[in-house]
Request: fold
Amino acid sequence: MTTQNSAQHKHLCHTAISKEEAMRDDHCHNHIDHRQPGLPSRRRANHLLIIAPLLALQFYVARQIANNNHGRHIAEFEDVINQPTNTNHWAEDAKSSLLRSGRHGEESSESKYSQKPRVVAIVDDGKVLPLTDVITPYNLTNISIPEDPPIINSTWYEPNAAKYLEGIYDLQSCQPMHEWQLQSYPNCNSFHELDLTKLRYITSGTRRSAFELREVVNGHENQFVYKSVMYNNGKAFNEKRVEVQRVDALVLEKTHSSKFIPDIHGYCSIGILMDFTPEGSLYDYIKGARLAGGSTLPPVDRLRIAIHIVAGVADLHSIDGSSIPSFYHDDIDWHQYLYVDGIFMLNDFNYAKPIYVKKEKNTEICRLTRGHMGTWKNRALEEFQAKTNYTDFTPFRPDTIDVWMMGNQIYTVMSDLWPYEKPLNLNRTETWKKAINGERTELPKHIKNSHDPSYRAMIKALDMCWTYRWDRRPSARFITDYLMGKLRMITGEENPDLRVLLPERDPDQKNTESDYEYYNDGAND
Reply:
């Protein structure tokens, strides 16, 4: 968002280049017939109700914050549409081809073009400005943009990411560590060539909805997750919601080399395309284990999961190989780790924040005087201290609260318990008092007294994560190296397999069967 320039306020209408594609294209849902053989009418209606407004909104926002050089953009669109197939340009790796080359269609027997763009015209105040000479089977008489779209002004596309940090850092004395922390890397042209009519709704969080998307890449069908802001959650759509998408995409792009963070395959305004993760999250595993009466995983596999937890944070804290963290997650939680090919990967960076440094000393990290999320049970000690005006509280380095919260995840993986659940389930305020007094949540006796080397390694890792003084708390990288060293000793292998095969969960398990809210969100306050 921060690198994009002002725009003429023109609306893009997503229309199709053939009758067949017109039947499948939700972006111009006011102009074309969406009837799909084999789909019940109610299902078709629900499908369009969920997807069509969301896609129209994304397209509207993307266009509004695009470059204002209209003639150049028309030429660019023509280049994309009229570009013949050149298989030499296809990326070898299917994942990178979707993000960086943009060639993800199969060559049609009826056409010499491999790409199938859906953008062929700009609708400006009711006038159609065609971008190509492709003949469309329908007249564009309406605009597929929400009737009451957000009013986008210059603050949306001028460099403005820094303003969201005004309440976090003292901007008189602090500045970004790197220019890229406030930038973004959208690839909207490739993004808009995706056939988004194939989206299948998966779930929604507090801010975003997730959809499954299938695309043909280099002749093979691949699955991805398309994330976009929720259009119907009762919250006004504003530039802040665009900003959090920028941050999520930026961090995913900068951590693309990590084995413990999912890949990103595309980003444009309010939409992100990333790895498909059908096997759920760390929270889903914990929920299933608790409903089953406890996990059957052996201690060494629990150690492997502990390594997943800390390694993802370590990679986030060492972007570009730096020993000085440039971002912190600020929302380390069981829900944020997605299970992908045997590894729990750290995800959801929409609450992540760049770490600033002192203007006088570019290596001295600016400290925080309070937390900037809700202060529920599973936050960090320093946030509890700030919340309660603890007399010995001192401003803290941002990355250290991520390290404390890692300990909460490790504790649950070890014990199948939520923090401060036993012997008596504590509410939020009781948890704050216990933590501030240095009283940790208790480990079950069979773990505390165990001589199993995996349990002993995880207990030591807990000690490091929950070090009382933030300035003595080891880094996520130090803890990762320690646990990896212990796993090497236990397995006798220099490069031990980190993958974990999880126990089967009840396929009929329902979300309502979870006790998470009772034990974690202060339902008994």
Observations:
- The longest strand covers residues 208-217.
